[in-house]
Design a protein that fits this description.
By secondary structure, the protein is an alpha/beta fold. The chain has ten helices and eight strands. Helix 2 links the parallel strand 2 and strand 3. Pathway: Carbohydrate biosynthesis; gluconeogenesis; Carbohydrate degradation; glycolysis; D-glyceraldehyde 3-phosphate from glycerone phosphate: step 1/1; Carbohydrate metabolism; erythritol degradation.
């Protein structure tokens, strides 16, 4: 049985003042079946970790370098994230793929680096609008899965997030049928490559998830949770999404 996961990606948002949202979230979110993860900017990981203390809320990074250390100005290694108190790290987010030219091979190496540091890797995949409209969605997903997920994949340390690029921050979402089609496809593709290991991998949907649409999305087969951007910045919004997942 896969545990549900509500993951928030703060992206390049938030400073000391926004830690108040975490205090609020800890007060308002009580879950039995749902894991909660917040991935703040790296500058907040250590303080957020201290704030959360023993509460059941995990902290993650938003990216890591493939190397353990070295001359890579501005980068952060997976080990550094772990040292700061992170237990997870997002790799291959479409904003990294677009803004930093990250390829499937780089994402794959980052997933391996994450596992090497004892982190859970949240590996992101998803098609662009052109690819969706060109009928290429499933081909793109198959290629990204094959290229981005290392052969050593273990379900306990791997989460896959399906994020259609055109749905991120736009207020647009795929139909429930489209989400279901892709999530079922991902499970099936993982099954071909990883056999029974595929069953334990949690699959998140990401892209304009809000309290108002969360319940219907969480009703779709093979959706084990969400990777939430904008709506994770406010405790009142994110706790609504968490509640919808817990009730699903
Ligand atoms: O990592 C999160 C996703 O990019 C979704 O962002 P969004 O919820 O603001 O659309």
């Amino acid at each position: 049985m896969r545990r549900k996961l509500a993951a928030g990606n703060w992206k390049m948002n938030g400073g000391s003042a926004e830690l108040a949202e975490i205090r609020e979230l800890l007060k308002s979110s009580s879950t039995a079946q749902t894991d909660i993860l917040i991935c703040p900017p790296a500058t907040l990981i250590e303080r957020m970790r201290a704030l959360v203390a023993d509460a059941p809320l995990s902290i993650g990074g938003q990216d890591c370098h493939v190397a353990k250390s070295g001359a890579h100005t501005g980068d952060i290694s997976a080990g550094m994230l772990a040292d700061a108190g992170a237990s997870h790290v997002i790799v291959g987010h479409s904003e990294r793929r677009q803004d930093h030219g990250e390829t499937d091979a780089i994402v794959r190496a980052k997933a391996t680096a994450s596992w090497g540091a004892g982190l859970i890797a949240v590996i992101c995949i998803g098609e662009t609008l052109d690819e969706r409209e060109g009928g290429k969605t499933l081909d793109v997903i198959a290629t990204q899965l094959d290229g981005s997920v290392p052969d050593e994949m273990a379900p306990e340390t791997t989460v896959i997030a399906y994020e259609p690029v055109w749905a991120i921050g736009t207020g647009l979402t795929p139909t429930l049928e489209q989400i279901g089609e892709v999530h079922d496809f991902i499970r099936s593709e993982l099954g071909k490559k990883f056999a029974e290991r595929a069953d334990g991998v949690r699959l998140l949907y990401g892209g304009s998830v809000k309290p108002s649409n969360a319940a219907e999305i969480f009703g779709v087969s093979n959706v084990d949770g969400a990777l939430v951007g904008g709506a994770s910045l406010k405790a009142s919004d994110f706790s609504g999404i968490i509640a919808a997942l817990e009730a699903s």
